[in-house]
C-alpha cells in the first residue's frame, strides 16, 4: 500500500539535513547513508548518495527520473552469479540439424 499524500514522502531526518546543508553551501560531495527506505526528493537531484547494500556502499547519482522512488531500489542487495551450465541441459542432448553423416552419397 502506498503512503498517504497528506503525510508526504518519507526521508530520514539526518539525510534531509545533510542534503539541505550541501544545497545551502552549494557543494557536491558523496554522502554515505544506510537509509534505503528514504524517498528521493527533488532537492536531492544532482547529488551522489552512497547507499549501503548490506556489504558495501553503492554510489548513486540522483537524476530527475528517480524522484519518488526509494534509495534502496538503486542499490541491489543480491548478486546474480548466473545459471548453472552443468548437468541436465536439454540443448546439448539434441543433435545439430542438417544431413546425417551416414547418409549414402548419390
Helix content: 10-25%
Report the uncertain regions. none
Number of contiguous helices: 2
Class computed from helices, strands and strand pairing: alpha+beta
- What Rg is obtained from the alpha carbons, in whole angstroms? 25 Å
How many β strands by DSSP?
Answer: 3
What's the N-to-C terminus distance? 72 Å
Shape: elongated
**Main β-sheet, spatial strand arrangement:** 1-2-3
Characterize the biggest β-sheet. Answer: 3 strands, mixed
Helices and strands, in order, run as HEEEH
How confident is the prediction overall: mean pLDDT?
88
Describe the model:
It is built from two helices and three strands. It has helices at 13-25, 90-93, and strands spanning 31-33, 48-52, 57-61. The protein is elongated.
List keywords for this structure.
106 residues; single chain; alpha+beta; 16% helix
Summarize the structure.
With 106 residues, the chain is α+β, with helices and mostly antiparallel strands. Helix content is 16%, strand content 12%.
Amino acid at each position: 500500500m502506498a503512503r498517504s499524500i497528506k503525510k508526504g514522502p518519507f526521508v530520514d531526518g539526518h539525510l534531509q539535513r545533510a542534503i539541505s546543508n550541501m544545497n545551502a553551501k552549494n557543494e557536491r560531495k558523496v554522502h554515505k547513508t544506510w537509509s534505503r527506505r528514504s524517498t528521493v526528493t527533488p532537492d536531492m537531484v544532482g547529488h551522489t548518495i552512497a547507499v549501503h547494500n548490506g556489504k558495501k556502499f553503492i554510489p548513486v547519482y540522483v537524476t530527475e527520473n528517480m524522484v519518488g522512488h526509494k534509495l534502496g531500489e538503486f542499490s541491489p542487495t543480491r548478486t546474480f552469479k548466473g545459471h548453472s551450465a552443468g548437468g541436465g541441459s536439454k540443448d546439448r542432448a539434441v543433435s545439430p540439424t542438417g544431413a546425417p553423416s551416414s547418409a549414402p552419397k548419390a
